[in-house]
Amino acid sequence: MSESSNASEISGNMSGRSLSGIPEVEAIRVGVDLVSAARRNIGFLRTVAEAQWLHEESTVVEAIRRYDELWMPLVSDLTVAASTPPMVLPPLDIEWVWFCHTLNPVSYRQYCELRFSKLIGKPAIFDEENEEYALMRCKEIWTRTYPSEPFENETDLDMPDVPTVTNEELLMEVTRHRLLYSKFPEAYRSEIVYLIAARQRYKALLHIAQRFSDECSRLVPASDILFMWLTHQSYPTAYAEDLKEMEGDMRKVVTVWESATEKEVKETEILWERTFDQPYGKAGGVVVLESNGVGSAKPPVYWEVSDTDVNTEYKSMLPRFLLEVCLFVKLNSRVKANQQNVPCEFLHLRMLRCHRELKLEKSISNFHYDSWQKAWRLYCEFGTKGVVVELCRLGGHCFKGSSVLASVTFQWNDLLRAPSLTLEREVAQQARIVVSVTPPVQAPYLLKSVPDRVTDDSGAMISDVILKINRYRPQEGRWLSRTVLDHAGRECFVVRIRVGGGFWRRGGETPSVVKWEDRIIEIREGSWSYVAGSIGRAPEKVVGTATPKEPPEQWKAAWSLSTGDEVMIGWESYASLRDLRFYLGNQMSPEPLVKLLKGRKMQYQVKNIKPKSKHEENQNVEEEQREEDEEEEEGFVTLVRYTEENPNGRATALLNWKLLVVELLPEEDAVLVLLLCITILVSVSKMKKEDLGCLLTRRRLKEAKLGARDWGSVILHPSSCSTSISSPYLQPWYWDANAVVGSDRADQITRQPVVNYSPMEGSDVLYRRGIIS
C-alpha cells in the first residue's frame, strides 16, 4: 500500500460476527426469558442493597425462619405436580432468602427433594403490574393460612437478643450474597440490547462447558455471562431442566464468590477464541481477578443508577451520556512475512469528534498473531461520535514524524445496532480490530464556572456598548459575574455576586461597596444574550439566590438559600483551611438530611498509590506526605444525602470551591450545588482576605479551544494506562483538579497582559472591599 500523505481511509472488512449465527450456540435451550428475568433481577438486587433493614442480623434470622417454616411449605402446597409454579410472590425478606438459596442449585434441589419430594420452582413474573397482583394474591393466601403470622417481617431491630438460627446453611448463603449488587451496579446492565448480547454469550459459555470443559481446569465467566448464569439459577425448575445433562460440567465454572487464577482466565480465553475466533473480553463483560472474591476493582467513573433527573427543569442543561469501549487487536498471519516493518509500525487511536489532542498509541509489536490482545479500555461521552484507529509508520511527516498507512472508523451508532454491540474490521490486511461498547447511560453532570464581565443591577455588562444602547442612561449597581459551562463548553447559568451600589455616568458618581448583608448571590438560567462581540446581557430567569445572614456564635459565616436551606461555615484558625467545617440544614427538617464533608469522600475518594522509597520510612517524610495529602484535599467538599434507603449516606455531588468546579448526580439539584460552591468561596475569601478563586478577575479568560481536550470526554481505564501516558485529561477531573482546571486559569492570569478595567466598572479597591474585606 502507498505511503502517500493522503492515505486513504479503508472501511475494512466488517464481518459483523455474531454468536447468534453459530448453530451449536443456538441449539442451547433456555426455558426462561433470561433478558426479562435479568432486568427484573437487577432491579430486585438494587432494592435489596438499598434496604439496610433487610441486612440486620435479627431481620435475616427471622426471614430465614419465615422462609423455612412458612413460605416453602405454603408454596409447595400451591404447586401441583408437573405444572408451572403458582403466580404468587412473597414479601421482600422471604424473596431475598429464596433468591440466595437458589444460587446454590445442588443444595436447593436436595433441600426441596428431602422436604417436599419435588423441586419447587419460581414463577416467571416480569411485569410490575403482574408483580403487584402476585404479591397481593400471596398476602390473601398467607393471611388465610397463617392468621397469627404477619405478612411483613416485623422484627424489632432494637431487640437486644438475636433469635436462634433455624438453618445455618441458609444463613451462610444469605450473608455471603449481601454485597451481590456491588458486582453489577452499572446502569447499562438493565439495557435490553446489553442483556440480549449477554444472553448469547452465556449460551456460548454453556456450549464450551459442555464440549471442552475437560481441556481446562476451570472456566471463568466474564461479568455479563456471570449475571446471566445467576439469573438462570434463580429459576430452579427451568435451570434444572435446561442443564440436566450438564450438571457435572457446570461444577467446573467459577462461581460468583470464588476467586480465579490468571492461568484459569487465560485457559478460558484460549478456549473461547479457538471456538468462536473472537476475543473473550468485551465492554461490560470483562473478567476481574480478585484476591478474596469480594468486591471488584474500582472503576474510574461512577456508574450507579440515578432514578430521577431533577435538573430537567433547567432547559439550559443537557444530560451527559457515557459508554464503555473496549478495543482488541489480532495480527493477520501475513504480517509474519514482513516482520522487518513491525517495529516501526503502530496503531494510533483518536476520537471521531472532541478531544483532538488525544494521543493513544500502541506498537504493532505489542500484538500477537495467534490470540486477541486488549489494546484499550476507555469511557467516552456519546458526543465523541466514535473512534478512529490508524495504522501508522514511523519516519513520515504527516503525523509528528509518522505517516498514516490506513484507518478504520467505528461509530457509536453503528456499534449500537450491531449484533452483541460488537464490530470487527480489518486495517490494511495487517490487523483485525474488534470494538465493543455498552449502551450509553446518563452520567454525572460536569459544570465549571469561569470569570466574566461585571454587570449592573439589570444583568447587563458594564460597557460603552450597553450605555449607547440605553441612550446613555447610567448603569446602576455592580455585580461580579461568572459563566457556568457544562462538559461540552455550553453556557448553562450565569452566577452574579452583588458587590457595589450606586451608578456611573460620564463625570458623575462612582459605585460604592454595599453592606455585607446586601451582597447577595444569584443564579440565572440560560446563556448570555450577546449584543456586540462578548458584550451582552445575563438571562432574565433567576433560579436561585443566597443571602448573607448573621451567623450563630460558633460559626463565622451563614447564608440563606432560596432552596429553603441554610449553609454555615466555620473555622478555628485564620491561618489554615484544614479546620474548615460546614453545616447544611433545612428549616422544614429538624434533623439534617444532608451533610457537607470536607474532602473527596465515598466514590470520589482518591488513594495516592505512590511507591515508598527507603527514605520515606522515617517519621518526618511520613508527616510531609500527610501534609501533602491534606493539601490535595483542600477546596473539595462532598455533598452526602441520608435517606431511609441510604442511612449511611449517598454522595450526590463533589464540589471544588477554590476552582468553582462541580460534579453532581442527576438526582442532585445543580443550582443548590452551585450556590454552595460560591457561598463557601466568598466566605473563605473574606475570612482569609485573599482572592482564593480568582474572584477579582473580571474578564472572560481564553479557554482551550472547544474540542481540543474536553475534560471528561474520554477517560482511560487504569488497566490501559502506561508510563508514557500521563495526561490528567484522561482521568476523572478530581484526581488532579489543579492540572485539569486550575493550572490553565492561573497561567492565563499571569501570562496575559495586565487588564485595564474601565472606570465605569469601578476600581480594584471596590471589588477588594466587596469580596475580601
UniProtKB/TrEMBL annotation:
InterPro entries: GRDP-like, GRDP_C. Residues 619-634 have a biased composition (Acidic residues). Pfam families: GRDP-like, GRDP_C. Residues 484-663 form the GRPD C-terminal domain. Residues 608-634 are annotated as: Disordered. This is GRPD C-terminal domain-containing protein. It comes from Morella rubra.
